[in-house]
Amino acid sequence: MARAGLSADRLTRAAADLADEVGLEKVTISALARGFGVKDASLYSHVKNLQDLRVRLALLAGGELIDRIGAAVAGRAGKDALVAFADAYRAYALAHPGRYAATQIRMDPAVVAESTAFARTAEITYGMLRAYGLAEPDLTDAVRLLRSTFHGFISLEADGGFGHTRPPEQSWRRIVDALHIALENWPGDKEPAAE
Predict the structure, then answer these.
(1) End-to-end CA distance of the chain, in Å?
(2) For residue 127, which of 69, 187, 61, 60 has the smallest C-alpha distance?
(3) What is the pTM of this model?
(4) 93-118: per-residue pLDDT in tens?
């Protein structure tokens, strides 16, 4: 019998908070059960296993992240949209490290295909990049460039990997400027940029 007050949504949100507090790798069914004052078995009527919980957490975090990015880029195009996108992405990742880590897990393509958050992510990201006159396969390559640059910088920053006295914020600004230049000067054929 399901314990009163517990639900998959409540467990997912608690797991997200716990991930931000102690790190994604320390989120376990046992740790979550302890937080609710119940036995591990009580949670299995709401989530199948730890992987199911982590996928739910990734979907929750992905939705939160794209909601922030979508609000930031609304009504913007070109460099303004890129800066807003990048800053919203970084702010979320630094404020919610456990949730952000969950967005990086590998998931079943069928789950991704059914996710409205992932569909919205593609829509907003590709929409921003189309303003640079990019079409496939360049869109996919540009998405990979942005994701790997953002993720690499944020991961190093969060781990204290920037030991130089120059503040990371100043480097971030220059990197986003450089990405804008790279997108404007993308190699190969381009469609005319949207005005």
Answers:
(1) 59
(2) 69
(3) 0.90
(4) 999 999 999 999 999 999 989 999 99
- Output the pLDDT for position 1: 37
Distance CA 72, CA 80 (A): 10
Determine if the peptide bond prior to 137 is cis (ω within 30°): yes
86, 31 Cβ separation under 8 angstroms = no
Q: Please state, in angstroms and rounded to a whole number, the distance separating the CA atoms of residues 172 and 86.
A: 9
Structure tokens, 84: 């807003």
Q: What long-range pairs does 150-157 form, CB within 8 A, spacing at least 24?
A: 150/86, 150/89, 150/90, 150/93, 151/104, 153/90, 154/89, 154/90, 154/93, 154/94, 154/100, 157/94
